[in-house]
Amino acid sequence: MPKLTFKVDKEDKWLYNGTNHRVIVVTKEDGSWKIVRLSVPSIEYLKDTGNGFNSDAENIAVKIESTLDKKGQIMNMKGAVIDNIAASEKQLKDEKLNARAIEPEISIDSTAADEHTRPSKIRVYMTNSVNINHYGSGTYPVDFGEYVYYVYNVLPNEWGDWYNTAKTAVQAGAIAVKMYGWYHVYHPKWNFSPYYADVQDNTNDQVYKYNSATTNFNKAVNDVGGIGVDILSGSSYVLFEVHHVAGYEGPGGQYSGTMWQYGTLYWAKQGKGYTYMCHYYWDRSSTQPIHFFYY
């Protein structure tokens, strides 16, 4: 993980003056090395796991990350707030249209209101024709005024429509889709040209299609509105990159770190709730369990 020192024309969440931390993933293709991912890591997690630099610049980066995560405020290395991407009270209220659907087998902790702040928007790099036709360009990311709109229009393209028969499976999917995007708003995955986006609209991340939302999937998103998931790292809880794949219908994948879409269908048929499923797939060990929080 390199440390890059910049002097920029305009500071934003992508780049600010001073030391910036990046994870660069490359692959060899046709005899040449290509960058396939240039993302912003969780500095706090790297420090907690003993993989940091323990420098003054790194400690400032942790404070920048923490302020963004807890308050939705983007700071520079001098401590000045240069942007605010926190969701508004109205946006959060609109997300919680349904009564919370909390199962009895695993409870959700009541936590401090400032543990994590949900973002108001996400930047998506458009490649799908339906998105290009609507937004007018596949070259530049698009700001969504409502983050939940992104979640509504991803879930139908990533999960089965089982709401009427296996509701908790779709609720688990709603948590997975929401938290994947949320994490990458704060830790952009495509932080290089031509993208400069948090995520793409395809299987490199999650499939987003304009106007693909349906009533049942929206209900699932609203069921888990105001509920998020993080993981214990050191002495604090941090957001992490959740993963999900199609998988197959059965009990496999436990503690793999990757939720199986068809596995959630299996567990829903066994009477399990979405909190059980999240723990089943995402718990890393007894010392790094996931944790649910209200926001």
State the separation between the terminal residues, measured CA to CA.
31 Å
| Count of DSSP H/I helices | 10
Indicate the mean pLDDT. Answer: 87
- Overall helicity: 25-40%
- Spatial strand sequence of the major β-sheet: 8-7-9
Radius of gyration, CA atoms, in whole angstroms: 19 Å
Task: Give me the count of strands.
Answer: 14
Query: Mind describing the biggest β-sheet?
Result: 3 strands, mixed
Residue fraction in strands: 15-25%
What class would the helix/strand composition place it in? alpha+beta
CA-based shape? globular
Order of helices and strands: EEEEHHEEHEHEHHHEHEEEEHHE
Poorly predicted residue ranges: none
Structural notes for this entry:
This protein is α+β, with helices and mostly antiparallel strands. It has helices spanning about 45-50, 55-70, 90-95, 130-135, 145-150, 155-160, 165-185, 215-225, 260-270, 275-280, and strands at about 5, 20, 25-30, 30-40, 75, 80-85, 125, 140-145, 200, 225-235, 235-240, 245, 260, 290-295. Strands 8-7-9 form a 3-stranded mixed sheet. Strands 11-10-14 form a 3-stranded antiparallel sheet. The longest helix is centred in the middle third of the chain and has 20 residues, at about 165-185.
What secondary-structure arrangement, pairings included, does this model have?
Elements: E1 3-6, E2 18-21, E3 23-29, E4 32-39, H1 43-48, H2 56-71, E5 73-75, E6 81-84, H3 89-95, E7 123-125, H4 129-135, E8 142-143, H5 147-152, H6 155-158, H7 167-186, E9 199-200, H8 215-223, E10 227-233, E11 236-238, E12 243-245, E13 258-260, H9 261-269, H10 274-282, E14 290-294
Helix pairs in contact: 7-8, 7-9, 7-10
